[in-house]
Design brief:
The chain has 486 residues and is mainly α. 69% of the residues lie in helices and 2% in strands. The protein is built from 20 helices and four strands. The radius of gyration is 28 Å and the shape is elongated. This is EOG090X04CK. Belongs to the TMEM161 family.
């Protein structure tokens, strides 16, 4: 229990520091204001009149009302937009500004808490047997990221003019649901998501628990129902990832056009494009584990690495490639902001006239939705990192292969299984007895939800996040390349 006390102290200190630091220095604000991002300013009415050659009658202008100030200009105006650096004052008006700032700031502190907890449990191996409070931080991080994606996706359902976007979200979710049903039927000797082993371990331990509670039950739900629930979850996340994937592919597509002279940045963007695909291949046994930890090449005495080393390598690659995707975020955000000038260039190819209000709106809306685009880019990466961290800890993996536990130090007698009747306090039950009963109950539930169960659950979610990112970004690139040629 000493380790739990140390974790609680670390959590309280982190919350206190987070409240004080974020009020003065926000990592999310730094991400927007200190990375060199430049946005385009919409032209004023005087500039539009001057470029369009519209005369100005002073007496008539003074008598005009606000409604009379709307005028039209030719679409093919030779207009160059002015630029400005993003300042802290400018981002306060952006849509979903607070959600974007909070998600980034909380992600950083959650990773700090996780790193401190891992370091402490590494020094004192007995800590791995206690409740890990960093998992609560990661679970909240997943909830915040999913909530942000739900809010962004909800924009298409609240807007009456976004019928096509709503249809695409629903079609994407339905397609991911059907695809997940097909993938969950694949033999796990080829796709090692671990759900079958997790179900077997859970079914066996739960049946023993119910039997000791003197409850008549055939066990938990069938494997088909469990996989159907996972397929529904895959369909929901697929609907949330449709437009983030399309947006990320468009930003990468535009970023490649603006970095011809920066070879390192160009290579980094290409790595970011293929990283979800490469990571999703690591769960395909014939393509990954077979070559690294089973097959023996040439005159080698054994495979390249053990199974545990391969699991650790997979965890490290998920984190490192996610970090690389974050490093290229400023370039992708700048590529998105450049859409304002691109819209003006495409407007020159159109015939007819456009009102000054509509023209300024087309330019200003790009910067206004910067945080929305930021959430579409950051939230999937945050989900991949959070699920990877939970998979490592809850699944019992190690960062460098096998866990270095002292068997004599960590070996404890298995405590008895608690009955549900003991958990209900009576008038004769003392506080110490109630506390002891709840501790026994928690240990009993820990035997049901073992590391093998969590390996299957979080292993599948990790793989699905990578596969979904690859699939949506790939569809977006195909869409962009088709219309670019057209």
């Amino acid at each position: 229990m000493a380790v739990l006390g140390v974790q609680l102290v670390v959590t309280l200190l982190t919350i206190s520091i987070m409240q004080k630091v974020t009020s003065r220095f926000s990592i999310g604000k730094w991400f927007l204001c200190k990375t060199g991002l430049i946005y385009y300013l919409h032209p004023s009415d005087d500039e539009l009149r001057k470029v369009a050659g519209i005369g100005k009658n002073k007496r008539k202008w003074e008598a005009e009302t606000e409604e009379d100030k709307t005028f039209t200009v030719p679409r093919n105006l030779d207009l160059q937009l002015e630029t400005a650096r993003i300042m802290p004052v400018d981002i306060l008006q952006l849509k979903f500004f607070s959600e974007f700032i909070w998600l980034i700031d909380y992600s950083v502190f959650a990773i700090i808490v996780y790193a401190i907890t891992e370091a402490y449990c590494g020094i004192f191996p007995r800590g791995s047997k206690e409740v890990n409070l960093s998992m609560l931080w990661c679970l909240l991080l997943i909830g915040f990221a999913l909530k942000s994606l739900c809010n962004v996706t909800g924009l298409y359902f609240w807007n009456a003019e976004a019928a096509a976007e709503r249809s695409l979200v629903l079609v994407g979710g339905s397609f991911c649901f059907v695809l997940a049903l097909a993938l969950l039927l694949i033999d796990e000797s080829n796709l090692e998501i671990g759900l079958d082993a997790a179900y077997s371990a859970f079914n066996q331990s739960a049946a023993v628990f119910l039997e000791r509670q003197s409850l008549d039950s055939d066990g938990p739900a069938s494997k088909l129902i469990i996989k159907l629930c996972f397929a529904v979850w895959c369909g929901i996340t697929g609907a949330l990832f449709v437009f983030p994937g399309m947006r990320v592919s468009r930003m990468h597509w535009d970023a490649l056009r603006h970095c011809h002279e920066r070879s390192f940045l160009k290579i980094l963007i290409y790595i970011n494009l293929v990283s979800p695909f490469l990571l999703s291949l690591l769960w395909i046994r014939p393509l990954a584990r077979h070559y690294f930890s089973v097959r023996i090449f040439g005159n080698m005495e054994g495979p390249l690495m053990s199974d545990s080393a391969f699991d650790s390598m997979r965890l490290w690659l998920c984190l490192v490639l996610s970090l690389l995707r974050l490093l290229s975020a400023p370039s992708c955000f700048q590529a998105y902001l450049n859409l304002a000038q691109n819209k003006m260039e495409s407007l020159k190819k159109e015939a007819g006239r456009i009102s000054n209000v509509e023209l300024k709106k087309r330019v200003a809306i790009i910067f206004y939705y910067l945080c929305v685009v930021g959430l579409q880019y950051i939230a999937p990466i945050v989900l991949c990192v959070a699920f990877t961290l939970m998979n490592k800890t809850m699944g019992g993996y190690g960062w460098f292969g096998q866990h270095n536990f002292n068997a004599e130090e960590c070996n404890q007698q298995q405590e008895p299984i608690a009955t549900i009747s003991k958990l209900i306090p009576t008038d004769e039950t003392t506080f110490s007895e109630a506390r002891e009963n709840w501790l026994v109950a928690m240990n009993s539930f820990a035997t049901i939800f073992s590391s093998e169960v969590f390996r299957g659950v979080f292993g599948f979610t990790c793989w699905w996040m990578q596969f979904l990112s690859f699939a949506t970004i790939g569809c977006g690139l195909a869409y962009q390349s088709y219309f670019d040629k057209a």
